[in-house]
Design a protein that fits this description.
By secondary structure, this protein is an alpha/beta fold. It has two domains: 361 residues, Alkaline Phosphatase, subunit A, CATH 3.40.720; 58 residues. 29% of the residues lie in helices and 12% in strands. α11 runs parallel beside α12. It is globular.
């Protein structure tokens, strides 16, 4: 079996042993690489483009659910199998038919294969960032981090995540929170990933982040009403807080104070509104439905995401695997398995990752569709990148059997709902699953599509705390999703 060596700063890889640059060109193909370069950079809108409201899919969604597979799902072993490729490329899994004629998924995704007629799979996603932290940042903000292909810490000058921008340009009216992250924060793996916060907008724009929502009856136990806190006492406490902060207008330059005020207001609103508290109460769901989603962190987070958008939250992100390499520390804890499968990829996918993902993601799509919510809820399943088109054992990582390295030059993302075509694929990768052979799309296009679906022009500007105009997104709406 060939051992694949990957450089962090270039798409041109070398092979150890007898396989060299010539073999790489055979597998990847210069044509696939050369054409793909323009697709790795966000394309600015042209002056003569259509008005935002004329873009296909504009305003079709009342809410968006993003299922973020942290660590990078393998396109070859999930959404875009290559059954005719050599074994060292296609991997150990077979493929199965789906509800889309002529489209095959991994054999370990039978439930998703059954509901594939409600999905569109984009098989030509691509960008040029090869490390988790900065690629996560790129996926969540739509912009490359200033330190590309690295693992930087979150910083105040970071670009805000798309949930924070949404709160800035159109705060929720039906619910106290505009954006909520479930099963977070995302760890990559030993630091908290940048790009999931308010960044330069400040902590007051951080999405509400919840961890393990599968424990207990309510995802936020502090929202349970206390017997000794009737509404009149809650109102008194809020009045007292307002008195203490009466001088806030004199302290408008005190960023921390302003952020605390925003968070206090959100907390009081959730406490005061029974419908907000109830949205977090998973015990109100039938036991059979909770079982259908899976009694695990990610499955229950998907169920809670459905409840939250039903209650009026416009944007919910489920971090599928809160730590992208949690298996290194707890190899027997399936909840801690992440998608960063450098080694033991086939064992990890078959026994830990795919059974729960197949169950939980299919349940989310099925549940939304049965309730009529898929018509106006955009669902996106994405990760920060894909996996390399050659299987190899990496001595620097835990595990005894081969896996796949990071690969950002092509990967797959699944879309559903809010006018997205049902039962389709968009774009294609080459026969080795290494590069796109059709138009490439980037994370910036996904972000543009999110805002457009919510009825917001992704090319409009908002202003940061020092009144600098910032464009929401530099990408283009993926209009082909809509037929």
């Amino acid at each position: 079996m060939l051992r694949f060596i990957e450089s962090p700063d270039s798409p041109l890889k070398a092979f150890a042993g007898t396989a060299g640059r010539r073999e790489f060109l055979r597998i990847g193909g210069l044509a696939g690489f050369s054409w793909a370069l323009p697709g790795l950079i966000p394309q600015r809108a042209q002056a003569d483009e259509l008005a935002a409201s004329q873009i296909r899919g504009f305003g079709k969604a009342k809410a968006v659910i993003v299922v973020f597979a942290s660590g990078g799902q393998s396109q070859l072993d999930m959404w875009d199998p290559k059954p005719d490729a050599p074994e060292e490329i296609r991997g150990a899994f077979g493929s199965i038919n789906t509800a889309i004629t002529g489209v095959r998924f991994c054999e370990h995704m039978p439930q998703i294969a059954k509901i594939a007629d409600r999905l569109t799979i984009v098989r030509s996603m691509a960008h040029e960032d090869l490390d988790h932290g900065s690629a996560f940042y790129l996926s969540m903000t739509g912009r490359y981090h200033r330190r590309k292909s690295g693992n930087p810490l979150p910083a105040p000058e970071d670009q805000p995540c798309f949930g924070s921008v949404l709160q800035r340009v159109r705060p929720a009216t039906r619910f106290s929170q505009t954006a909520i992250h479930l099963n977070g924060p995302a760890e990559v793996p030993n630091i908290i990933a940048p790009g999931q916060f308010g960044g330069l907008l400040g902590g007051g724009y951080d999405p509400m982040t919840l961890g393990d929502v599968s424990k207990g009856t309510i995802a936020v136990p502090s929202l349970l009403p206390h017997a000794d806190l009737p509404p009149i006492r809650l109102q008194a406490r809020q009045t007292l807080l307002q008195s203490v902060e009466a001088g806030q207008r004199m302290m408008e330059d005190q960023k921390v104070m302003l952020e605390k005020h925003t968070l206090y207001q959100q907390a009081f609103e959730m406490l005061a509104r029974p419908e907000a508290r109830n949205a977090f109460d998973l015990s109100q769901e039938p036991e059979t439905l909770r079982d259908r989603y899976g009694r695990n962190r990610s499955g229950q987070a998907c169920l809670l995401a459905r409840r939250l958008v039903e209650a009026g939250v416009p944007l919910v992100t489920v971090i599928w695997s809160h730590n992208n390499r949690g298996q290194d520390k707890e190899p027997d804890n399936t909840d801690n398995y992440g998608w960063d499968t450098h080694n033991d990829i086939f064992y990890g996918l078959k026994n830990h990752l795919l059974p729960r993902f197949d169950q939980g993601f299919s349940a989310l799509i099925e549940d939304l569709d049965q309730r009529g919510m898929l018509e106006d809820t955009l669902v996106i399943c994405m990760g920060e990148f894909g996996r390399a088109p050659l299987v190899a054992l990496e001595p620097r990582f835990a595990g005894a059997t081969p896996g796949r390295k990071h690969w950002s030059w092509v990967y797959s993302v699944a879309f559903a709902g809010a006018g997205v075509q049902r039962g389709a694929t968009l774009g294609a990768s080459d026969p080795r699953g290494a590069y796109p052979v059709t138009e490439a799309y980037g994370p910036w296009d996904t972000v543009a599509t999110i805002f457009s679906a919510l009825g917001i022009d992704p090319h409009q500007h908002y202003h940061d705390p020092v009144d600098r105009p910032i464009r929401i997104c530099d990408g283009q709406v993926i209009q082909s999703l809509y037929g």
